[in-house]
Design goal:
Blueprint (H helix, E strand, L loop, with lengths): L2 E3 L4 H9 L3 E7 L5 E6 L2 H4 L2 H17 L6 E5 L6 H15 L8 E5 L21 E9 L3 H12 L3 E10 L11 E6 L4 E2 L5 H4 L13
Parallel strand pairs: 1-8, 4-5, 4-6, 6-7, 7-8
Antiparallel strand pairs: 2-3, 3-9
Helix pairs in contact: 3-4
Length: about 210
């Protein structure tokens, strides 16, 4: 399925730059790859006003394609806050369209143990045939979102779309579902064994922590 990107991306780029979300250094990504650039979306999601703006734009795209998710699910920790903002934007948009609907739910999937498998916990349940939008903040390989999609399917619900703020995968067809992104960027990634920063002896930082 082809990636669907917001036509006017300049305002998204400007907003990310203004809050310092575009970072340079030597980063270990959640995919295991290394990069000399990193987009830290929590830098923008710390401002609900800006996060709501991004969520509104994503929801416009999704609704314009005739999709009406009932629930928004995102992988923790990256999508925490983002899944809630998207659910609020979806709830508001459907209400403004005069569509009678049940409240949109916002749920995060978490990895409770070292296996890395996602679960939905804390007494929350996904209903069979429930139509779900899976969201994440930045897509590199799509690995986390894919695991959440698989979890939703395993629980008998229907993942009908995947949405992200930034798509840095450089690929189409990551998901069988429609894939919506607000910004598509080409940032270099390297296998650890072929990383020029590693070869230069530069310490690697895992984003979200100070550990090297």
């Amino acid at each position: 399925m082809k990636t669907i990107t917001l036509p006017d991306t300049k305002k998204i780029e400007t907003l990310l730059s203004e809050v310092g979300a575009m970072q340079q250094g030597h980063f270990l990504l959640s995919s295991g790859l290394h990069s000399n650039k990193y987009i830290q979306c929590q830098k923008i999601l710390q401002y609900p006003r800006y996060g709501a703006l991004l969520a509104d734009e994503l929801v416009k795209m999704i609704l314009s394609h005739g999709l009406k998710p009932q629930t928004v699910v995102g992988p923790a920790l990256g999508a925490v806050h983002w899944e809630l903002l998207v659910a609020q934007a979806l709830d508001k948009a459907l209400a403004n369209n005069g569509a009678g609907h049940a409240p949109i739910r916002a749920i995060f999937a978490e990895r409770p143990d070292a296996t890395g498998a996602f679960e939905i916990r804390r007494g929350i349940e996904i209903n069979p045939d429930e139509e779900v939008l899976v969201v994440e903040d930045v897509t590199t390989t799509g690995g986390s979102a894919k695991k959440v999609v698989e979890l939703i399917e395993k629980l008998g619900a229907k993942p009908i779309a995947v949405g992200t703020i930034v798509d840095r995968s450089g690929k189409d067809g990551l998901f069988p579902q429609p894939f919506f992104s607000l910004l598509k960027v080409d940032l270099g990634t390297f296998d650890p064994g072929q990383c020029p920063m590693c070869n230069a002896g530069e310490p690697v930082v895992k984003p979200g922590s100070s550990k090297k």
